[in-house]
Specification:
Elements: H1 2-10, H2 12-30, E1 45-51, H3 57-72, E2 78-86, E3 89-96, H4 102-115, E4 128-131, E5 138-145, H5 150-166, E6 171-177, E7 182-188, H6 190-196, H7 200-210, E8 215-221, E9 224-229, H8 237-241, E10 244-248, E11 251-254, H9 255-258, E12 259-265, E13 271-274, E14 277-278, E15 280-286, H10 292-306, E16 315-321, H11 322-352, H12 355-362, H13 364-379, H14 385-415, H15 420-446, H16 454-489, H17 506-522, H18 524-544, E17 557-563, H19 570-585, E18 590-597, E19 607-614, H20 624-638, E20 643-647, E21 662-668, H21 671-686, E22 691-696, E23 702-709, H22 711-717, H23 721-733, E24 735-742, E25 745-753, H24 761-765, E26 768-771, E27 775-778, E28 783-790, E29 793-797, E30 800-809, H25 815-829, E31 836-839, H26 842-855
Parallel strand pairs: 7-25
Antiparallel strand pairs: 1-3, 1-4, 2-3, 2-29, 5-15, 5-16, 6-15, 7-12, 8-9, 10-11, 13-14, 13-18, 17-19, 17-20, 18-19, 21-30, 21-31, 22-30, 23-28, 24-25, 26-27, 29-30
Helix pairs in contact: 1-2, 1-15, 1-16, 2-13, 2-16, 10-11, 11-12, 11-14, 12-14, 12-16, 13-14, 13-16, 14-15, 14-16, 15-16, 16-26, 21-25
Length: 856
């Protein structure tokens, strides 16, 4: 590289333009870099969601989940296969090896699922196959509230505001939570059906057949062609009441005679509250690869534009905002980056004692950092906590090469009395190989980090490459700009001036270092032993260090998950959750709360989430962890009958993995035996210091009513099991049987029995079912109803039943410590060959990361 230094000394314009080109391109690249919290990563996770309304968890598992698992299990490259079966919903989570292309994997899963559609039960919704894209995660949540009717608020939020938000560049999807949109409800009266000898299926079939539009062909009139259009849809709700359901002895039975037709709204499946104010929530997801901060700013600007046109009494609040923490975190790292560069320059000045020398060395910092932005832009990186951490760390490294070259040039001028020109060329040539070796050794340290395995390796890829970029540019600067500037800016030592080694500051340091060096050379074995001892201490000290998947940061937010006893209604869960939220909101340092019930994919009525927004760090006394611990103590002491988990807001969600700090799976063929093992480990967790919120995924005791068909009676009366099932599904569960159009908007026509026939077992017995001999009969003639309990959900891992043990940790405790304890306990239990225990989620990736770092 010394030939390059010689050219740059002789051709200063070449050296200047060379570095200037990199700097200018880097500067323009900086403004094109996206801003995000984490790097963009493609997780090879695929989710298959299938809905069969009203079906029990065990039925969902056997009829849907098992068939989908069997189909997708033949795909190559699967790392994990997990599933959750709850009432009416099946979710299969397929985790592929990181080397698998997620788009290819998604298409393969979609093809396999499509091949078994004919094997799924009748009435099931088509399975939805989605890849998990954390880059398309929710970025902002809006709360729309008003004193108007919830249906009216939902119509505005869904039909007006949602569509305006989805038109924004970068917005991928807007989900509505807590709304109750307009719906045409058909409340069927089983008593009236019995009077006319009808069943619910007759109502469903007749309405589907008499409310439709189909292409009727074309008319050819000479040179003119006309489209024949059959207007078969009902035009208003009154006309819907007049639809003929059946004809009995010449009398036309109309829908209004056997059912109440209501222009109403959907039954509540989820609720949302901002503080004590009910609200309809709009959860905005960004498109993959877009800039999080820019998307959120665009959404906020749209709200400013919409505000003057809001209906009277309406209010839109920003309930959750990802950009706030991202901007604060990125701003803090940028501040540290600038401060680090300044302090590095000051330290250099203290030792060199010369402003020109300091400037020559310090110019390597902005040149290297800014030039790195161009390489980051080319690699597709963003400004995030990982890449900015790399740049901050590189500040003290990129100046090293320049200092070494500058110091040797200055030494040649001072000790050998060489001219600036000759010293710049000769000193760089003398030290060139050593500088090159030093820089390459640094690159050899950081570059392997970019090739670590696992999810952590995907995160650290941008860290390792960014560090390597910055260090590589600093090497170029030290061989071009540094010798060129030294040849023109350094001043030769004047007559009678003292050398740097004779200065009061550096002189004692030089003499002390020479004595230490001499002592070390005379006792080399001592230095070797100290080096070996330091090397041997690495695994010991590393083992004592805390190991967590992500660092704990004060994000001014956390969340509380509440699960009420099984069978608790949505309304009762809402009352409990909002009361708890009001108590949390009264705590010092809490700004507001956001409460949602039933907003998970399964629409679990007894599951609530309370998002707690804290005041900024500067406006509160306690830390985020202090308030979190206080909240945990308060809700645990007061709400003992609930399963409560208080923890940080997960940085990533989805894929069926719990947001808890530690997740450990027990799997095997016998659920009862797994439950016993889980109870033992859960008891150990409760006694482990630092562990809080220990729990399992096992949810039993869900109240249910079992319907047992007397097959002999049913055969005598000509009743088919399928007819019984379809009648119960329609009249008790209810489903969409048609649709209604008004002003270009489509609304569902939803059928279900009136409440009195689905409130208790006595009402169920009066429901009519089709009979081939008698036309229709009531259920009490052919079935036996009995109360019972069953599982609320059935979880599987790699096609075996499983129970997940979870817990959170107090501040200062390590995930790795808890996982090691669980590993030890599992070995003591000596599972049979068909049973096993493995960590998942953060816990699994933490183990992979440790191996990856050792390799790197």
């Amino acid at each position: 590289m010394q030939w390059l230094a010689a050219i740059c000394v002789r051709r200063p314009v070449f050296a200047t333009v060379l570095i200037l080109v990199l700097t200018v391109v880097g500067l323009f690249s900086y403004f094109e870099l996206g801003v995000d919290r984490f790097p963009k990563i493609d997780f090879p996770f695929v989710t298959v969601t299938t809905v069969l309304a009203g079906s029990a968890p065990e039925e969902v598992e056997s009829e849907i989940t098992d068939k989908i698992e069997a189909a997708v299990n033949t795909i190559s490259g699967i790392d994990e296969l997990r599933s959750t079966s709850v009432e009416g919903v099946s979710q299969v989570f397929v985790t592929f090896l990181l080397e698998k292309n997620v788009d290819v994997a998604t298409q393969e899963v979609r093809d396999k699922v499509s091949a078994i559609l004919g094997d799924l039960p009748e009435g099931v919704d088509p399975p939805v196959v989605n890849k998990l894209d954390p880059d398309a995660a929710p970025v902002i949540t809006l709360a729309v509230s008003s004193d108007k009717d919830v249906r009216e608020v939902t119509e505005f939020a869904d039909k007006t505001l949602r569509r305006q938000l989805e038109s924004i560049a970068g917005v991928g999807q807007v989900l509505v939570v807590g709304g109750r949109g307009r719906k045409i409800n058909i409340w069927i009266d089983p008593g009236a059906l019995k009077k006319f000898g009808l069943t619910g299926s007759d109502v469903s079939r007749s309405l589907a057949a008499q409310n439709l539009e189909v292409p009727a062909g074309r008319l050819q009139q000479g040179e003119q062609q006309l489209t024949l259009r059959l207007r078969g849809r009902v035009r208003n709700v009154e006309e819907l009441r007049d639809v003929v359901v059946a004809v009995r002895e010449g009398y036309a039975v109309r829908l209004g005679e056997v059912a109440q037709v209501e222009d109403g709204m959907a039954e509540p499946e989820s609720v949302g509250y901002r503080g004590e104010r009910p609200a309809v929530l709009l959860i905005v997801r960004k498109q993959s690869g877009t800039n999080t901060v820019e998307v959120i700013h665009a959404v906020k600007q749209k709200l400013v534009d919409v505000a003057p046109r809001l209906p009277a009494g309406y209010r839109i609040d920003v309930a959750r905002d990802q950009s706030e923490f991202i901007e604060n975190a990125v701003g803090a790292v940028k501040e540290h980056l600038g401060l680090g560069a300044l302090l590095a320059a000051i330290i250099v000045y203290l030792f060199l004692g010369n402003a020109r020398s300091t400037l020559i060395a310090a110019i390597a910092i902005p040149s290297s950092i800014i030039s790195t932005f161009a390489l980051m832009r080319t690699a597709g990186f963003t400004l995030n906590s990982i890449t900015l951490l790399a740049l901050t760390l590189s500040v003290g490294i990129v100046i090293d090469d320049a200092i070494v070259v500058l110091e040797n040039i200055f030494r040649h001028m001072e000790e050998k009395s060489e001219s600036r020109w000759n010293a710049a060329i000769g000193a760089t040539k003398e030290i060139g190989l050593a500088v090159l070796a030093t820089t390459l050794s640094l690159i050899a340290v950081f570059l392997p980090v970019a090739f670590m395995s696992g999810i952590v390796g995907r995160f650290m890829n941008s860290f390792g490459l960014t560090m390597a970029f910055a260090i590589g540019v600093s090497l170029l600067v030290s061989f071009t700009l540094t010798p060129m500037l030294s040849a023109r800016w350094l001043k030769s030592l004047g007559q009678g001036e003292h050398t740097s080694k004779e200065s009061r500051f550096y002189g004692p340091i030089e003499r002390g270092y020479m004595k230490l060096l001499g002592w070390s050379m005379r006792r080399r074995w001592v230095v070797v032993l100290v080096g070996l001892a330091a090397l041997a201490a690495i695994p010991v000290l590393g083992g004592k260090a805390q190991k967590n998947f992500l660092p704990l940061e004060d994000e001014s937010q956390f969340q509380v998950q509440v699960r009420a006893p099984e069978g608790t209604s949505l309304d009762q869960t809402r009352l409990t959750a909002t009361r708890m939220a009001a108590e949390i909101e009264a705590l010092s340092g809490v700004l507001y709360t956001l409460t949602t019930v039933g907003d998970d994919p399964q629409k679990t009525a007894n599951l609530a989430t309370i998002y707690v927004k804290l005041r900024p760090v500067s406006d509160r006394k306690g830390s985020q962890q202090d308030i979190l611990d206080l909240t945990r103590r308060q809700v645990t002491d007061k709400y003992k009958g609930l399963r409560v988990s208080v923890g940080l807001v997960p940085a990533f969600s989805g894929g069926g993995v719990t947001p808890s700090a530690v997740s450990y799976i027990l799997q095997g063929p016998d659920l009862a035996r797994i439950t016993e093992y889980a109870a033992v480990l859960l008891d150990k967790l409760k006694k482990t210091p630092g562990v809080v919120d220990p729990d399992t995924s096992l949810v039993l005791g869900k109240p249910e009513v079992r319907v047992v068909l007397d097959r002999k009676k049913a055969a005598d009366l000509g009743v088919q099991m399928a007819d019984v099932a379809m009648s119960l599904r329609l009249l008790v569960g209810g489903y969409k049987i048609s649709d209604y159009t008004e002003n270009g908007e489509h609304y569902d026509i939803f059928a279900r029995s009136i409440p009195s026939f689905r409130a208790d077992m006595d009402g169920l017995k009066k429901i009519s079912v089709p009979s081939q001999k008698l036309g229709s009969i009531t259920l009490d003639n052919i079935v036996t109803l009995s109360p019972s309990t069953g599982p609320s959900r059935v979880d599987r891992y790699n096609r075996q039943k499983q129970v997940t043990i979870t817990c959170n940790l107090l501040q200062g405790y390590s995930q790795a410590t808890v996982l090691d304890m669980l590993d030890v306990e599992v070995k003591k239990m000596r599972f049979p060959p068909s049973y096993s225990a493995v960590p998942i989620g953060q816990s699994k990736e933490l183990g992979r990361a440790g191996k990856g770092f050792l390799f790197a």
